[in-house]
Write a structure and sequence with these properties.
The structure holds 2 protein chains of 2 kinds. In chain A, 65% of the residues lie in helices and 0% in strands. Chain A is mostly helical. The longest helix of chain B is centred in the first third of the chain and has 34 residues. Classes of the chains: A mainly alpha, B alpha+beta.
């Protein structure tokens, strides 16, 4: 260990020379920061691909009938859009990129518990991603089943379903192994003195998420194997023509995929609980309420999956029970929002870019959550089920929620990760574009859905034309905003001014190390006496 | 408050209105409070953050009020929904058959059609069957839908209150021409309906010919 904090000895993880050179110094690196950064690159590339597919879908919706593609292509494009965004962007998203990079630093460790396993997870992620995309170019054609793979259609279509399912299976392992790694790291590698209740809230969020990944992901893995067996060997499990039950598939699928929604949103909530204190200079209001609401979300979240199946012909009692639990799971999310806003009260607010992304998140996530009430209610859900209303709702929650916080995290930790700074004015400009485009695009879809526009439709009735057109324009505005955002960050990376060690006045451990950090993070492992936000209580920070 | 083509559709709109009103209330409170704090407690105006004591009462209040409101929502939805699950004793059974990518209908007297005809003011129970993959039978104007799940028979109850033409759409993704899987519901006065229903049944062979001729056109 290098004990001197001498500036001349400082070599950042970006410049560090190890056993391998050139590109291999990255692709074979077991350094959690390099792996996190590679995940981040992968996620941005896949997000750009998914967004391009989404923009193509919206272009097709500019006019009824054919605009740029035929129905078979449209069905494949929305399927790939869903698979890429869910399995390659939102699920790995914050934990794999920012969790890998910051979890060890924020608990005062040099790396995760199993660095080689971590590299394996990354490679599984890349292999899964390539397999999913390769179905585009192979015989049989791109898959056209939707990301939910509903049987019997997924059993009967001739497209490359088995390949895409196999890709999802591999990605599941990447997720499970990362979860395992994080759980072990949090248990074994916390710095001396850092008890669980002295951990930053982001670490709490990653820790809870890791457990859901380890526990829930195997269920979808098994379901996928069953579908592949059924397709290849004709074993009757889900297809009624073979003596199976398609409703069983829906249950198994959503038993994983609903808790997966919390795998997607909990890390984002953790980032919000870091950014708000940093920019308001206040301890998060209701720390315990937020912690307990996370726990209750994770717990009740396991008992709401069948609200995805309100119209599938379940018994009426089952529908009532799942409706009740769905309403109850809304409460803890509401509590979080109230506490975040209350933290701003009497703070000293510096509305920098990361904070503005969080403020935007609070509005969009609230709209997403509140429209969830419409979907939990049996009478109104039956009407809007399977329409654009649902599409708008989950984009408000997943895109307006998780992805906006991915952007917030990117702008919050960018100076730490790269030691460079982006242009803040241009970032705010991009944010305004994204906000306007987002609402123009998705809010109109709530109206379309209530008017009866079903989802996954290549064509539409003439009366939907005006709103479809407005929604597509919103999509183009949002894509423009995203491009500005990415170019601004790239420009900052190449030509930006040097960033300080602690540009925002953050109090968690990552701000005590240089930007960018050294290969082993700390010259000396810190000893922790207080929780990270304790300092605000004593009023030591101006 | 709302006038729909069925009593149930009006009820759904009223519940929707209630949920949206509550939601807009919460959204406005959260957004306005946040924007006010961002300006009022801006770094320039308020350079030193103050510590605010956590308040158990506040936490209880903002857990209790939303809980009560959502329980009301749950109850209204459940009550209304159970109303359309009870099968009235005088309901006539009609079979809805879905296949890629069209709906067809079979009436108790053996008549078949590609457009659903119903009589105003009568109770119906639709049995929903698919011959291939899953579909969903959605009548937007009636605010009602139920899946046609492969391997089982689902049902739906309805009572048209107005004559007219209404769209029927498939709302469960079913492959290539999913977006073309539209059908129509035509609600007639009872006497017209009976006339339509019995037309062609007595002289069965003729009607098959006319339907075939119509389809060929």
């Amino acid at each position: 260990m290098n004990k001197s904090a001498d500036a001349s000895n400082y070599v950042s993880y970006l410049d560090y020379k190890g056993k391998h050179t050139g590109i291999w110094a990255w692709l074979l690196s077991t350094d959690h920061k390099r792996i996190g950064l590679m995940y981040l690159m992968g996620i941005i590339v896949f997000f750009t691909a998914g967004m391009t597919l989404g923009a193509l879908l919206k272009t097709e919706m500019l006019t009824a009938g054919r605009t740029i593609m035929d129905p078979q292509t449209y069905n494949a494009v929305f399927t790939l859009h869903g698979i890429i965004m869910i399995f390659l962007v939102i699920i790995p998203g914050i934990p794999a990129a920012f969790g890998n990079f910051f979890l060890p630093i924020m608990i005062g460790a040099k790396d995760v518990s199993f660095p080689r396993l971590n590299l394996l997870s990354f490679w599984l992620y890349i292999i899964g991603g390539v397999l999913a995309l390769s179905s585009l170019f192979l015989q049989g054609g791109p898959i056209d089943v939707g990301w939910s793979f509903y049987v019997p259609y997924a059993i009967r279509t001739n497209s490359n379903v088995s390949l895409a399912l196999f890709a999802a299976f591999i990605l599941g392992f990447s997720s499970i192994l990362t979860g395992l790694n994080f759980v072990t790291t949090v248990h074994r590698l916390r710095a001396p003195g850092m008890t669980f209740f002295k951990m930053p809230l982001f670490i709490w969020a990653l820790y809870s998420t890791a457990w859901i990944q380890v526990i829930a992901t195997p269920v979808v893995g098994i379901t996928i194997v069953l579908v592949i067996l059924e397709r290849m060997f004709g074993i009757g499990i889900f297809d009624p023509a073979l003596g199976g039950d398609p409703i069983l598939f829906q249950h198994l699928f959503w038993i994983y995929s609903h808790p997966a929604v919390y795998i997607m949103i909990l890390p984002a909530m953790g980032v919000v609980s870091e950014i708000i204190p940093t920019f308001t200079k206040r301890e998060i209001f209701g720390y315990k309420a937020i912690a307990y609401s996370s726990l209750s979300i994770a717990f009740i979240g396991y008992f709401v999956w069948a609200h995805h199946m309100f119209t599938s012909g379940m018994s009426d009692i089952a529908r009532a029970v799942f409706s009740l639990f769905t309403f109850l799971v809304a409460i803890p999310s509401g509590v979080k929002v109230f506490n975040w806003v209350a933290t701003m009260y009497k703070g000293s607010i510096d509305a920098k870019v990361p904070f503005l992304f969080v403020a935007m998140f609070i509005v969009l996530f609230s709209i997403g959550g509140l429209t969830g009430l419409v979907l939990g209610n049996l009478a109104t859900d039956i009407h809007v089920h399977g329409t654009y209303f649902v599409v708008a709702h989950f984009h408000y929650v997943m895109f307006g929620g998780t992805v906006m916080i991915l952007f917030a995290a990117l702008h919050y930790w960018f100076p730490k990760m790269f030691g460079k700074m982006y242009n803040e004015k241009i970032a705010k400009f991009a944010l305004v574009f994204i906000f306007i485009g987002f609402n123009t695009m998705y809010f109109t879809m709530f109206i379309l859905g209530y008017q009866g526009m079903p989802r996954r439709y290549w064509d539409y009735l003439p009366e939907f034309h005006n709103l479809q057109f407005i929604s597509a324009i919103g999509a183009f505005i949002m894509v423009t905003g995203f491009l500005i955002l990415i170019f601004n960050l790239l420009h900052g990376l190449l030509k930006g001014p040097k960033a300080e060690q602690n540009p925002w006045g953050g109090v968690t451990l990552e701000w005590t190390v240089p930007s960018p950090p050294t290969i082993e993070n700390f010259d000396e492992i810190p000893v922790i006496e207080h929780g990270p936000y304790h300092i605000y209580k004593e009023g030591q920070i101006k | 408050m709302f006038n729909g083509p069925t009593q149930y559709a009006s009820d759904v709109d009223s519940i929707m209105f209630f949920i949206i009103a509550v939601s807009v209330g919460f959204l406005v409170i959260v957004t306005v409070a946040m924007i006010y704090f961002i300006f009022r407690y801006n770094k320039k105006r308020h350079p030193q953050a103050r510590d605010v004591k956590e308040s158990a009462i506040l936490e209880v209040v903002w857990i209790a009020i939303p809980t009560i409101l959502v329980l009301f929502m749950f109850y209204f939805g459940l009550q209304s929904f159970y109303g359309i699950r009870e099968i009235p004793a005088d309901a006539s059974n009609i079979k809805v058959i879905g296949r890629m990518w069209q709906f067809s209908y079979a009436y108790p007297n053996g008549k078949k059609s590609d457009t659903l005809f119903l009589a105003k003011g009568k109770n119906y129970k639709l049995d929903l069957i698919t011959t291939d993959v899953n579909h969903s039978f959605f009548i937007p104007a009636y605010r009602i839908k139920e899946d046609l799940s492969a391997g089982k028979t689902n049902y739906m109850v309805l009572k048209p209150a107005e004559t007219g033409e209404f769209d029927i759409a498939c709302s469960e993704y079913c492959g290539l021409n999913h977006s073309k899987m539209y059908s129509k519901l035509i609600v007639l006065e009872e006497n017209q309906y009976n006339e339509w229903l019995n037309q062609g049944i007595n002289k069965n062979t003729d009607s098959t010919k006319t339907t075939n001729a119509a389809e060929k056109k």
